[in-house]
Amino acid sequence: MTTTDVIVIGAGPAGSAAATVLAERGIDVCVVERERFPRFHIGESLLPATLSALDRIGVRLDPDEHQYKAGARFLDESTGQEQTYWFHDTLPGTPDHAYQVERALFDGILADRAIRAGARVTFGAKVTDVHVDDDGVSVRTDAGDVRGRYLLDATGQNALLARRRRTLRRIHGFGRAAAFLHFSEIPDAALDEIEPHGNIQILRTPFGWIWAIPLRGRRLSVGVVAAEGRISEQDVRDAVATSDLLRRWTRGATATEPTLVGDYSYVNTEPHGARFGCIGDAACFLDPVFSSGVTLALLGATSAAEAVGAALARGDEADPDLLADHAARMKLGYRAFYLLIHRFYHTAIFENLFFSEDPDPLMRRGLVTMLAGDVWREDNVFQNLLFASRRVDPSREIP
Ligand SMILES: Cc1cc2nc3c(=O)[nH]c(=O)nc-3n(C[C@H](O)[C@H](O)[C@H](O)COP(=O)(O)OP(=O)(O)OC[C@H]3O[C@@H](n4cnc5c(N)ncnc54)[C@H](O)[C@@H]3O)c2cc1C
């Protein structure tokens, strides 16, 4: 049996970022990842707030490898309405750009960073059993057992602990299912439109919305999200065939087979306890319309790891409340995005602001600051109004 201080299950962005922070503090960390890298993962569009988390773990993305992203464009081709949000148009202090990444490459960079920091990462080792007791934690993996003082569950939507402990609660009223595929060798005409800014395109449709995410190397990620009912492989092909923009951007390009995912917004109602914490999607996952997943995963992972590292140094890692402050802070972030996403799906007010040609500059800047993932500041009037509105109480869905 291997022994360690902290066992991290999963080497996605959350697991690798947490492992890096802990290992840099001199803490012994074992990361157990079921896949062998590089491996595909969806979730390619990052928000500017990611940059501060990446900075924290000493990762700087190379613009030659990752698609620079200056903003997000929302459009409705049926009405011709459109609006582009530029990340330079935020409240002071928010980073002014982000990147769109091939996750196989990005997750590999983060895992390598954790290894360089001193974490022991085992790939191809699926965790099949977890046991938390008064004195420590044990996990059973395909590659042997590991015993540690603390456990971080970073298993993404697998949400190992939440599913076992039955603390995973679905969030209703958002996207129900997605189908996505990738195009390679997109035409020069598409590059001419994409290159100056690299923006993600969000197309509103009668059934939900579509994303088009430009990636480096003449690639384009396209997905459709249905607000209700089921989705099929054919839906994403139809979406491309019926959109002027997507037809133009994919003319002559080669498409992969579509992938389907379903029913995915949820919160883990007990994301921490004695000797364990859940980070990234294992703590909460919200509809991806505003690309919040990786950003919240990275920011949450680094903050949780700081708290766990400090507790290990004090020797009080068995304290069930050691992640209480961290969890409260994350809840604020989840609720902020919950409110935005709820407005997107359910109210015309938000649509008016989105497509308004002359929105109040302060409100607009506040909205863009939220869209950039900078949701933990007190000076955002737009965000404060969103929270003050009695229309929706986010604590009902994210308690
Ligand atoms: C359709 C869709 C579109 C999305 N688009 C975006 C987007 O544009 N931008 C964005 O930021 N986010 C997006 N997301 C969300 C994003 O994918 C996640 O939020 C992000 O990957 C979370 O990172 P993580 O580290 O928590 O989990 P993951 O990245 O899922 O990593 C978890 C890791 O744990 C491993 N693992 C799981 N179970 C076990 C086990 N039992 N034993 C060992 N290892 C295990 C997995 O193999 C995986 O490597 C999207 C999600 C969906 C579903």
Write up what this structure looks like:
The structure is a single chain. The chain is of the alpha/beta class and 399 residues long. The chain has two domains: 2-169 and 266-397, FAD/NAD(P)-binding domain (3-Layer(bba) Sandwich); 177-262, D-Amino Acid Oxidase, Chain A, domain 2, CATH 3.30.9. It has 13 helices and 23 strands. It has helices spanning 13-24, 50-56, 103-117, 160-165, 188-194, 233-242, 244-250, 293-314, 324-346, 348-355, 361-371, 381-388, 394-397, and strands at residues 2-3, 6-9, 29-32, 67-69, 71-76, 81-86, 98-100, 120-122, 127-132, 137-141, 144-148, 150-153, 168-170, 177-184, 200-205, 208-215, 219-226, 254-255, 259-262, 266-268, 272-273, 276-278, 284-285. A hairpin with a 2-residue loop joins strand 10 and strand 11. It starts with a strand and ends with a helix. The mean pLDDT is 94. Bound molecules: flavin-adenine dinucleotide (FAD). The site of flavin-adenine dinucleotide has 38 residues, from helix 1 and helix 8.
Structural classification: alpha/beta
Low-confidence stretches: none
On the 0-100 scale, what is the average pLDDT?
A: 94
Biggest beta sheet summary: 8 strands, mixed
Q: Helix tally?
A: 13
Radius of gyration from the CA trace? Answer: 21 Å
Bulk shape:
globular
**Secondary structure tally: strands:** 23
Task: Assign a percent range to the helix content.
Answer: 25-40%
Termini distance? Answer: 38 Å
- In CATH, what is the class of the largest domain? Alpha Beta
Strand content: 25-35%
Give the CATH superfamily of the largest domain: FAD/NAD(P)-binding domain
Q: How many domain regions? A: 2
CATH structural fold name of the largest domain: FAD/NAD(P)-binding domain
Distinct small molecules = flavin-adenine dinucleotide
